[in-house]
Each structure stands twice: as structure tokens, then as C-alpha cells.
Model the fold of this input.
Amino acid sequence: MDRVQRIASHVAAAGVGGPSGLQQAPTSSTMSSAEKSDDDVVICSALRTAIAKARKGNFRDTPPEDMLAPLFKATIERTKLDAKKIGDIQIGNVSQPGAGAVSARLSQFIGGLPYEAPLQTVNRQCSSGLQAVANVAGAIKSGVIEVGLAGGVESMSLFSMADGLDLNKLSTHIFDSQAAQDCLIPMGITSENVAKQYGISRERQDTLAADSHRKAAEAQKAGLFESEIVPVTTKVKDPKSGATKEVVVKADEGPRAETTVASLGALKAAFQQGGTTTAGNASQVSDGASIVLMARRSAAKELGLPILARMRSYAVVGVDPKLMGIGPAVAIPEALKKANLSVSDVDIFEINEAFASQAAMTVEHLKIPMEKVNPKGGAIALGHPLGCTGSRQIATLLPELKRQGKRIGVVSMCIGTGMGAAGVFESEQ
Done:
């Protein structure tokens, strides 16, 4: 059995979690139980910037510090938290040197947080923002801290995805391992691999992409993003005159209401001759930031913090690097199993649309009704600022659960080099 067959078997064997209502003791990786407890990990705030088009949008000249700082400030102001109670801060980032550790610490101070609050950065590529949330949740659950901030930031305008990898300095031993070599396959080619392996047609991909734009444009028009977005004042340089102007960035720049399956169908394949992945059915290159405030429920009550939701579980899995896009199809069942839930128990899935091919594969494999998937659009329309996306999805999920009067939400994404991650959240709004 070759690697492609083995990974197909792995995905098929993952299942969709246990039956609804099955009673099972929480595993050690469960963040919160089904019944409310003072030991639960709760979310007290989830905010983000608008997402801007990289190199073309209003954040193209904005340093990561200036996207993160307003979120730190807004979180403290809106929740009335004594910032000295923050036990740790973790920020996801992919492309800055050292995952932007110094940059994130600078943004903390610019945003008015005291030096007593420690900070570190996280790089698990496209899941970095969600991994930061999981790390802080784990620290709370284990008793290391009581209150923490987690989030992510990415300026794809100022830092290229290639900045973190110098091919000339890689070990020659990668040629001794096919899996190691496969880690270097361009993401777009892995999308083509998924489309071919799982029979995801060009029309299916373009339909998913057009729907993403339609839903995002409709949500934007209805004002559904306003509560989650913190306006950011920044300066933008005119490329011709060199003059700068001050702008307030408060709306996502990616959604295009006029996008149709027909217009997407006119685009050429971007990565492979005769392929099906295009610039129109892949995620947009973007700039943005997001921050989530978390606490132990007992601490949140003691400090008078709002409680929006509790984090039920988290899972991260490894898959064949050559088919990295299938990560969510494996990670979602693992996270649901830890929360003793099934796919049918979930009200909303926020599945990152790195590529339409892989998002469609996950939806079809897990038999998720499309009306539950990315109801306000996904990364094809909104954009995918790498380190920011995981926590951005939480900021988008929680208001929508409240608006719909629903309870259970899942955030998931594929991860470069062959992984997938998923988190399960239960609304208390």
C-alpha cells in the first residue's frame, strides 16, 4: 500500500466521533466538561482587526505591532480586566524571524499592558493562532496560570512566507526521506494532490469559492462583523507620490459580492498546467491580527469578567505532507471525540479555506451540511493572515453562535508540512 492509499485509509478510519449523548469520562486533553464547572477554561473576549489585502490593502505599510497593540488595548478596556492579572500571553506568527517574539512584546507595551505580563510566540504555521489559544487553555487547565491572552498576527505585506526558510541551509539528509522532501512541496501542488486523490472537481471548488464571497459580502452588508472588529488607525503610503495618508481600517477588504462560479471559471490554474486550483478558489494573502482573553471560570467570576463560551477540547494531528490539506478531516473527529461529541452535534464549523479543494474534501468526507460551514464566509473571501487565522476564526464564530442561538462550534484548519488542528467551543451567550 503506497503513502496515498495509507493516508486515505487513515482519514477513512478517523470516523466522525462517538454518538451524541454517549457518556464518557473527560480525557486529560479535555479543556472543559459538558457540564459547567468552576474549573472550565472560558473565553471572556475575542476580538480582531479587519483583514486587509496584502501589498495592496490598507495594512500594507502597517507593522505587526500596530495591528496587535489596539487589540490589547481594546481587550482590557472592554472587559475592565486588571492587566497585572494576566499570567501569560501567547501570540501566533509564521513569517517573522523568531516568530516575531520581540515584535509581539513591543506591541504589548504599545497597547498599554504592563511588563509583569509575560509573553511568548508560537509557530505552528497556519494553526498558530489556534495553537496559541490551546497553549493558554492548557496552562489554565493545569493550574500554571488563571488568566491569559492568546492570539496571532501576520503581515504578509512586510514578511514573505519564504522568509523563514533558507533552502541553501537545509540538511542534505532530506533526500534520505521521501516525507521530508514532501514537506517542501508548494502548498498549491498539495491542493492539486487533494483534488485529484479525492475527486474534487474544478466546478465544486469554484462553487465553494463563490459561496464564500457571497456569504461574506452578505454578512458584511448586514453588519455581522462589526462586534468582532476593532478599528485600527494607520498610515498608508501612496506608491506613486510617496505621500502618506491616515486611514481607519474597520472593514474586511477581501469579499467581492460580484464573484460568481462563471467568473471564477475563467481563471487559469495557478500552480499546475491543467490543474484546478486558481487564484480565485484559494485563500487570499492578507494582513491582520486577533486576540482572545481566556480564564479559569472561577477566576473569571472573581474578576467580574464576561463569559462568552468555554473551550471544550483541542486536537492536532499529523498527515502525509503531500496531502496536507486533509488535516481538518482527521483533526475534527479527534477534537470531537475528546469532547464526547459527534459531527451532528456541531452547529457551526469554521473551517479555514486554505484551498477550496481541501475545504470541500473535509466537508464531503465528514458529511457536514454546507449550511453549517463558514456561515459568514471563509478565507477565500476574507483572507488568511497565517498566524492570525486560528484566533480570528474564534472571534468570528462566537458572535454567530449567539446570533443564531446555537451552542457548539468547531474551528479547524490544515497546516503546512502535513498536519491539521481543531478546537471545540461551547457558547454561553
Remarks:
- Residues 10-28 have pLDDT under 50 and may be disordered.
